[in-house]
Amino acid sequence: MNEEQQSLLLNCSSRFPPPQGVKLSYGTAGFRAHASLLQSTVYRVGILAALRSLKTHSVIGLMITASHNKVSDNGVKIADPNGGMLSQQWEPFADALANAPSPQDLIRLISEFVEKENISFDGGRPVEVLLGRDTRPSGDSLLKAATEGITSIVGAVAIDMGILTTPQLHWMVHARNKALGALEHDYFEQLSSSFRCLMDLIPMGSKSKEPNNNLVVDGANGVGGVKLQILEKLLNSLVIEVRNTGKDGGVLNEGVGADYVQKEKVVPRSFGSNDVGKRCVSLDGDADRLVYFSVPPGSSTKIDLVDGDKILSLFALFIKEQLSILNEKEAKNEKGSYEARLGVVQTAYANGASTDYLKQLGLEVILTPTGVKYLHEKAAEFDVGIYFEANGHGTILFSESFICWLEARNNELCSVSKGSERQKAALRLLAVSKLINQAVGDALGGLLLVEVILQHLGWSIHRWNELYEDLPSRQLKVKVEDRTAVVTANAETVAVRPPGIQEAINSETAKYHQGRSFIRPSGTEDVIRVYAEASTQEAADRLANSVTKIVDQFLGFGRS
Ligand code: G16
Q: What are the binding positions for Mg(2+) in this chain (predicted)?
């Protein structure tokens, strides 16, 4: 680093002292904390984003959001050149940067890292970072801190893309680096045109079976509902009623949103007995998750939840069907046929019944730790990789080689059997690859794909929910003195620390028919999460409560 660069960093960073006595870490989805603690961290992540752009010669994204967390929290994460999460190799540097005590330490760290990574400041290429933020009131000042961080690297440019859903920002980075249109307008255009294409390809017989084109959306009082209202105008065929847009004084994620609905299994605010029988969907605060639900007859608060596992199952069913149509009969021995590898990725939170169902479909099911960064990486190993967390975060990834093959196949079929089922299957798969975000889970694209598939199959939400019966489950969280005291293994199914805790959980779980339980430290909140599953709801609740007590005994406040 030359002197000009060093003195720029010194001047700027002295205006962003780190908070005292707080250790932050780049968790499941970036840094998250009370917004008042984050000025320095966001400033420093701005520096990291500019360095990442220098290193990769690409456009990088920086998103300011704490997604499902409380409105008083905020957070920051990086989108890599392909639109995915920051390379995990850079996470230790992010941690070190965020926690460097003084500007001098910060500069030393950056110098060492720049040398180790062989980052050149004289590449002569543009260094660009796209910035986005959700609707949190603290977002504006944190965005300024991020901009200062980015421009603390000589020649780096920060481009404010405005208030966005997290997946929109990831999508824009992906598109920019592929030299495609990357404005919000392009995003809406791509989603709406691929949706319309899929709707046009729905078999005639299916359309009338599900008369209900009306969808009621809980926007979590965040950014997603508002963006969906814009998108709806381009769709023609769906009637979407958005509630909890945040415009009527509702608080972000408070009694609303996908996280609340999935964890509590009750209706969000503004929903109730008048909604019995309707198809409802809940987004989270930054619209990277979605879960469906319906209100059963006679209920005003309870719901029938259709979670991320069921979305995954619906997608898997549809994709599998399209792939088998493509490979049908006469196609088998034709030159150029392609046995696409289809795989699905879940976490330990996946309901046991969903995993059994997917295996019965003959699919390869892989388990990873919680966090899209892990699931995405695994799904990318397939030609078509579908990943979903039970909480509704997921997408479908198509390999570049499979997309190329599909495009060539579609052209070929166009000339020999235009309009055939096989050509339609190729077109559908191509449209799905454009509708569903290739960078990260996206509630808007996910929602449109669910709607298309339900219409394609002629299914109601109830028929969809009957794919398999969920095992009753319960999720709880426990505040402990130090959540890092819990260390897990085997995709978080086993707690290897503190010693003895797993044995205690095992002996409790063994008391329950179809019992399963695990604990893990959250990467977005200061808690230990507890999951329990058993043959009845009452048993799942009891098991979760007992495991919570075990966590408290081993790690609760007051124990050393
Ligand atoms: C983030 C991650 C998800 C993860 C969730 C909860 O979601 O992107 O992969 O499931 O946090 O993580 P944890 O249990 O570690 O707190 P979001 O929607 O908050 O960005």
A: 67, 284, 286, 288
Beta strands 239-243 and 279-283: pairing type? unpaired
pLDDT of residue 338: 76
User: Does 523 belong to an annotated binding site?
Assistant: yes
Burial of 214 from C-beta contacts in 10 A (0-12 / 13-18 / 19+) = exposed
How far is the C-alpha of 340 from the C-alpha of 326, rounded, in Å?
10
pLDDT value at position 329? 64
Whether residue 521 has its Cβ less than 6 Å from ligand 1: no
- 329 residue type, one letter: K
For the chain, 560 residues long, the average pLDDT of each consecutive 10-residue run is 91 94 89 96 98 97 97 97 95 96 96 95 87 98 98 96 98 97 98 97 70 86 97 92 94 98 96 95 98 94 97 98 85 65 97 96 96 95 98 98 94 85 96 98 98 95 96 95 94 96 97 96 92 97 97 76
Residue 495, beta-bridge partner list: 488
Q: What is the gyration radius of the CA atoms in the chain, in angstroms?
A: 24
Check the annotation: does 218 bind a ligand.
no
Residue 528 bridge partners (DSSP): 478, 521
ipTM for this prediction: 0.95
Q: Where along the chain do the CATH 3.30.310.50 domains lie?
A: 473-555
Classify domain 473-555 by CATH number.
3.30.310.50
Please tell me the predicted confidence (pLDDT) of residue 560.
Answer: 38
Q: Determine whether the shortest distance from the Cβ of 524 to ligand 1 is under 6 A.
A: yes
Phi and psi for 513 in degrees, rounded to 5? -65, 130
CATH fold for domain 309-439 = Alpha-D-Glucose-1,6-Bisphosphate; Chain A, domain 3 (3.40.120)
* Bridge partners, 64 (sequence order): 76, 133
Which residues are part of the catalytic machinery? 67
Query: Atom 14 (ligand 1): residue with closest C-alpha?
Result: 522
Check the annotation: does 391 bind a ligand.
Answer: yes
Where are the domain boundaries for CATH 3.40.120.10 in the chain?
A: 3-180, 199-306
529 lines ligand 1 (CB under 6 A): yes
Q: What was the pLDDT predicted at 188?
A: 98
Structure token pair of residue 482:
């130090």
Whether the model pTM is above 0.90 = yes
Provide the b/e sequence for 498-519 (b: ≥16 CB within 10 Å).
eeebbebbeebbeebeebbbbb
Q: Distance from the CA of 393 to the center of ligand 1, in angstroms?
A: 8
How many whole angstroms separate alpha carbon 144 and alpha carbon 121? 23
Instruction: Give the architecture-level CATH label for domain 3-180.
Output: 3-Layer(aba) Sandwich (3.40)
In this structure, the residue with its CA closest to atom 3 of ligand 1 is 371
Query: What is the spatial distance between Cα 250 and Cα 421, in angstroms, rounded to a whole number?
Result: 47
Q: Please report the atom of ligand 1 found closest to the CA of residue 285.
A: 18
What single-letter DSSP state applies at residue 134?
Answer: -
Cis before 498? omega within 30 = yes
CATH fold of 199-306 reads: Alpha-D-Glucose-1,6-Bisphosphate; Chain A, domain 3 (3.40.120)
Ligand 1 neighbourhood includes 523 CB (under 6 angstroms): yes
